[in-house]
Amino acid sequence: MGIAYLNRFCHKFKARHDKNPMLPTHCDEIREAEIFVLKQTQQEKFYKEINSLKAGRPLAKDSCIATLSPFLDENQLLRVGGRINKAAGNLSSKEINPIILPKRNHISILLISHFHERVKHQGRLFTEGALRTAGFRILGGKRMISSIIHNCVTCRKLRRNLETQMMADVPEDMITPGPPFTSVGVDVFGPWEVSTRRIRGGAANSKRWGLMFTCLTSRAAHIEVIEEMLSSSFINALRRFLLLRGPVKIIRSDRGTSFIGAAEEMKVNTIKVDEGPIQQFLDKSFITWIFNVPHSSHMGGVWERVIGMTRKILNSMLLESYGKPLTHETLATFLCEVCAIINSRPIAPIFSDPDEPMILTPSMILTGKVDFLPVVSNSLSQQDVFRAQWKRVQVLADIFWNQWRKQYLAILQSRRKWKCRTRNIKVNYVVLLKDSAENRINWPMGIIDRVFPSDDGMVRKVVVRTIRAGKPTFYIRPIHELVLLIDSEE
Fold first, then answer.
1. Of 107, 1, 94, whose CA–CA distance to 45 is shortest?
2. Is residue 446 a contact partner of residue 439, using CB atoms and an 8 Å limit?
3. Which of 274, 36, 293, 318 is nearest to 168 (CA)?
4. Tell me: the pLDDT tens digits for 133-184?
5. Distance between alpha carbon 442 and the CA centroid of its chain, in Å?
6. DSSP secondary structure letter of residue 292
7. What dihedral angle (degrees, nearest 10) is formed by the CA atoms of 270, 272, 276, 281?
């Protein structure tokens, strides 16, 4: 439009000395400006070819447009000659003889961006088809269109995948042998409606939740029933768990309100994401509570999988007892049965070799009871095993941890997904913040305010600054909840 306005000014200036001026219409001005811009663009890149065609000479063999059989039209624009001139009845002249434009040119980029917006940010085929229909042939257009779509912020908002990073190493407390439930993952699941007391005309119902404690080394499970989603109920359940299973050194959980409140009331050491790397424990007798990043359920995959198994088993039990009132006592009994089933599950591959009959289960280390002992510790003889019960328990513990090292740790060695390193998210990157409760077009935009590199130098959690109600708001999020829109380095 700027060129059209300049042409209008020139026409008006010339019309001052003309008695009967004939000023061009608005459409004519735009068309004249378009021809002027296209001619200048072609002259910059194809001046040799244009001069040869004007002089009636053939094009050079090394010309990049020789295969297109170009010619000059009535406006001296370079167009494609090609071999489909006889298709005039089916195609328009613009499609048969499109205007040739160079690659990596500013005008070509503007045209691609314009038609990409006209097709509402659809893919390369839509954009290229709109260009061809409008009568433009851009050299290397496919690659240019793909590049422009790749860098289009609107397309990234609509379709770009969430960020990923190579899967982190397994934390030390998950692969260090030790007494069961020394390191645990905690989460709450439920609720269930239970009949608490009889009233006139029926029964009063209340809600109950299950509190799952998962041993991070042996994958054993322990479930407590709680009556309320409050810190006091959780602390009581945790006290019952500690009395039954012994002291705990590390607790991992999400950032649930009841968990954070309980940690503050119990005055245990808490390691939160915004406090940097894990430091040495202040007091070995205290519990250290490690909170995961908000909205990062994959960081608690160990106990999330156990909760998934618990739901399936419990649903099967409730289906069998359908029609009978579910009471607090019945629910507690069911959850104990669920624990027994989960703790008897194999945690390592089952071999078909008859020389390897042992099935590695969490109940081996929890109860110390098996039907047979296929292997005897080097420090103890077969006679010692049957002479004293404590020696039998010691042998069984040795067998469990030997098999745990050989079979179970090998499962953790490989990365099932997120196998490759990717470029780290950095400060000042513009991102889209995922909000599962909203449609993607309503997800808020934000700027990376702070990053937290792991021990391997990879960034997997960040602080995002967004504007909410006219004020800056900060969120701690894993990178798997972000869509990169603008790289500050670009």
1. 107
2. no
3. 293
4. 899 999 999 999 999 999 999 999 999 999 999 998 888 888 888 889 999 9
5. 18
6. P
7. 20
CA angle 427, 433, 434 (to 5 degrees): 145
Instruction: Compute the half-sphere exposure of residue 53: CA atoms within 13 Å on the CB side of its CA.
Output: 20
Phi, psi values for residue 252, rounded to 5°: -115, 140
Residue pair 23/12 in contact by the 8 Å Cβ criterion: yes
- Residue 236 falls in which region: left (phi positive, over 0), alpha (psi -120 to 50) or beta: alpha
> What gap in Å lies between CA 423 and CA 244, rounded to an integer?
47
Compute the distance between CA of residue 142 and CA of residue 144 in angstroms, rounded to an integer.
5
* Residue found under tokens 């709680």: 226
Contact indicator for 69, 62 with CB cutoff of 8 Å: no
Take residue 352 and report the two structure tokens written for it.
């078909």
Model confidence over 443-485: pLDDT tens digits? 999 999 999 998 889 999 999 999 988 899 999 999 999 999 9
Q: Which of 484, 475, 486 is nearest to 296 (CA)?
A: 475
Per-residue pLDDT band for 267 (boundaries 50, 70, 90) equals low
Cα separation of 290 and 281, whole Å? 12
Q: 194 has which bridge partners?
A: 206
Contact 70, 100 (CB under 8 A): yes
| Alpha-carbon distances, residue 42 vs 4, 38, 48, 310, 455 (angstroms) | 19, 6, 10, 70, 55
**Is the N-terminal amide bond of 191 cis, ω within 30° of 0?**
yes
Average pLDDT, the chain: 82
Find out whether 239 and 265 touch, Cβ atoms under 8 Å.
Answer: no
User: What is the spatial distance between Cα 177 and Cα 154, in angstroms, rounded to a whole number?
Assistant: 50
Contact 187, 259 (CB under 8 A): no
| Cβ atoms < 10 Å from Cβ of 181 | 24
**b/e burial code for range 338-352 (CB count within 10 A of at least 16 → b):** bbebbbeeebbeeee
Write out the H or E segment, with its range, that includes residue 267: none
Instruction: Give 190-206 pLDDT, tens digit per residue.
Output: 899 888 766 665 557 78
Cβ atoms of 466 and 444 within 8 Å: the answer is: yes
DSSP string, 328-386: HHHHHHHHHHHHHHHHTS-SSPPP--TT------HHHHHH---S------TTS-HHHHH
What is the rounded distance in angstroms from the CA atom of residue 469 to the CA atom of residue 257?
A: 24
167, 417 in Cβ contact below 8 A? yes
Please report, as a single letter, which amino acid is at residue 351. Answer: F
CA atoms of 290 and 269, how far apart (whole Å): 9
> With contact defined as beta carbons under 8 Å apart, do 104 and 140 qualify?
yes
Question: CA 108, CA 103: separation in Å to the nearest integer?
Answer: 7
Q: CA nearest 358: which of 403, 405, 389, 412? A: 403
